[in-house]
Specification:
The complex is a heterodimer of chains A (71) and B (515). Chain A contains no helices and 8 strands. Chain A is mainly β and 71 residues long. In chain A, 25% of the residues are buried. Classes of the chains: A mainly beta (71), B alpha/beta (515). Chains A and B meet through strand 5 of A and loops of B.
Chain lengths: 71, 515
């Protein structure tokens, strides 16, 4: 599970469900303190669930994306 | 006539002491993937360098003729040892004997360990497991009375925070006084998946309705984020290496200065890529750690507290071989804004540098304090002024390099107002009381609201002010001393380290640091 490390607004979602992504891929962008902060996956994996949509206001610790790594 | 017989008795008791809590308990410790305290000291310290103090102290059972039947050592072991050829004091809990609790402890050993490190002015490494000599409910039965709580010798712990480096390694379940010893250090480490740290463990917490595993209650992810513990590693061996590395940057005490080592990295080395390290798009962020790694002597950066107060990266490094305390903004966390936790992290780190006479370099990209309801609820401004005060109280040489944002009160904390600092800016620097974005709407509200086309008016004001905010315009008024080519930053930082070295002064600081 990938959680929000900062609070802010979901500016852009860059992936879709079932998509396979390589490690270091930006998954979505959070606008926080007027900056655009990418949320990145450390490992290669498959997107299982996306819990947010663009323009959602999120808090630190909120669920963002569920991934499966052993694919 | 000789004293061989008496000596034999001493040796045989010492051997009994090495049995710790017995074979079964040692097996249990090993089965849990943990070393015993004696194995830990053996791995941590230079071969055959450990000189134990009080190995004969323990709990003996005698028969009616006063002959010894059994002997168990105390569950706290300490002494003088060497790491990398350097003298230190090491003390640690034996979890195989009553989980390190007071029942099997001799509290004077804890006190003597603290006194010894403080008096000999040597770094202290405490290996903590269990309750660290604290009491348990069973103590009532073994002592026949309840004790009024006190932590005898805490004055020594507090005094040593301002005198000698204290490292604490939490290598299993750590609770109560053990957790206090872990938290009361300059640098603390846990082992992922093996250590858990809490005021009270799961059985106690269940009484207040929280059913949690050890890991859920006090695992490394909880304690690193809370700032109670600085670092977590995968194995005990890595914890020992981390302790050694941390100490390698520090003197034995505040009455000495850290040494320069020979650096193979050219102090005049330039880095071409730094000219484009900061994005032109002011909303875009960048990774700070590659910049740090590039600027310092190769491989010398040792980060402390990576998971806590993440808007600031803190750690030790070397520049031209000199140890330096380095802080750098990380825009990945709230754009580099100082959160409440960031402010607390800055306080501790700046105090650490001041205590042990390390010059400070701060790479600045701070848009201000975090704003919003969360920030207010966490008392950001209160912690912010404490961080600023810690900076203002420093006397150690200080250098700030403004890489990008420097706004508001938190931005102003890039320097102390009380004395000289070396200050430079990259051409990407931007500063002011408030960033223009958002600040214009507040400052020019009536102009914008009363305009025929508010959007156009906002744009016109933004363009007008953008021309004025070039760092060159500030340099005209000598508001910034120098704007430098980012590619030459390492040379300037190394020169600062060379110039600062003879300025460092030994001694205890006016206000010794708290944990």
């Amino acid at each position: 599970m990938i959680y929000a490390e900062v609070s802010g607004t979901i500016s852009e979602i860059l992936v879709t469900s079932d998509q396979i992504v390589e490690k270091e891929t930006d998954l979505l962008i959070i606008e926080c303190m007027k900056m655009l902060i990418p949320v990145t996956t450390k490992n290669k994996g498959k997107i299982i669930n996306i819990y947010v949509k663009e323009n959602d206001i999120i808090n630190e610790g909120d669920k963002l994306i569920e991934m499966k790594y052993d694919i | 006539m000789s004293w061989e017989k008496e000596l034999e008795e001493k040796v045989s008791r010492e051997k009994l002491s090495e049995n710790l809590g017995g074979k079964d308990r040692i097996k249990k410790q090993h089965d849990a993937g943990l070393y015993t305290i004696r194995e830990r000291i053996d791995i941590l310290t230079d071969k055959s360098s450990f000189n134990e103090v009080g190995k004969l102290a323990g709990h003996a059972i005698y028969n009616e003729n006063n002959d010894l039947i059994d002997f168990k050592g105390s569950n706290f072991i300490f002494g003088k040892a060497k790491i990398d050829g350097r003298n230190i004091i090491v003390g640690g809990d034996d979890f195989t004997l009553r989980g390190g609790s007071a029942d099997a402890s001799i509290k004077e050993k804890h006190l003597k360990c603290e006194q010894m490190a403080l008096s000999l002015q040597l770094p202290l490494i405490r290996i903590v497991e269990g309750s660290g000599g604290g009491g348990s409910v069973k103590t009532i039965e073994t002592s026949g009375r309840a004790n009024v709580p006190e932590v005898e010798g805490w004055n020594l712990v507090v005094e040593s925070m301002g005198t000698i480096p204290r490292v604490a390694l939490g290598l299993g379940s750590v609770a109560g006084l053990g957790a206090a010893h872990l938290a009361c250090s300059h640098y603390s480490v846990m082992v992922k998946e093996k250590s858990a740290v809490f005021v009270a463990g799961p059985p106690v917490v269940e009484q207040i309705g929280q059913k949690l595993s050890k890991n859920e209650l006090g695992g490394y992810e909880i304690q690193l984020k809370s700032g109670a513990v600085d670092d977590a590693v995968d194995t005990e061996e890595e914890a020992f290496e981390a302790a050694k590395k941390f100490l390698s940057y520090l003197p034995n005490s505040v009455y000495q200065l850290s040494d320069q080592i020979i650096s193979k990295d050219d102090p005049k080395r330039t880095s071409e890529w730094l000219i484009e390290a900061i994005p032109k798009n002011i909303k875009a962020i960048y990774k700070i750690r590659p910049i740090i790694e590039d600027l310092v002597d190769k491989g010398s950066f040792f980060e402390i507290g990576k998971k806590y107060g993440k808007s600031i990266v803190t750690g030790f490094c070397r520049l031209n071989g000199w140890p330096i305390a380095l802080m750098a903004s990380d825009p990945y966390s709230y754009g580099g804004c100082w959160t409440s936790d960031t402010c607390k992290k800055v306080q501790k780190f700046v105090d650490l540098a001041e205590t042990f006479h390390l010059p400070v370099i701060y790479l600045v990209d701070c848009p201000g304090f975090q704003v919003g309801l969360d920030a207010e609820k966490k008392g950001t401004i209160k912690e912010g002024v404490r961080a600023m005060s810690a900076i203002w109280q420093t006397t150690t040489p200080w250098m700030s390099i403004i890489m990008r944002n420097c706004f508001g009160v938190a931005g102003a904390a890039h320097k102390r107002g009380s004395s000289y600092i070396s200050r430079f800016a990259w051409p990407s620097a931007r500063w002011g009381s408030l960033p223009l974005e958002g600040g214009i709407e507040a400052a020019y509200r009536s102009d914008i609201e009363n305009a025929d086309d508010p959007k156009l008016e906002l744009q016109k004001i933004t363009t007008r002010l953008n021309k004025l905010r070039s760092p060159i315009r500030s340099a005209e008024s000598f508001l910034i001393e120098e704007i430098i080519d980012p590619r030459h930053t390492r040379r300037i930082m190394c020169e600062f380290a060379d110039l600062s070295a003879p300025l460092r002064k030994i001694g205890i600081t006016n206000r010794t640091m708290r944990p």
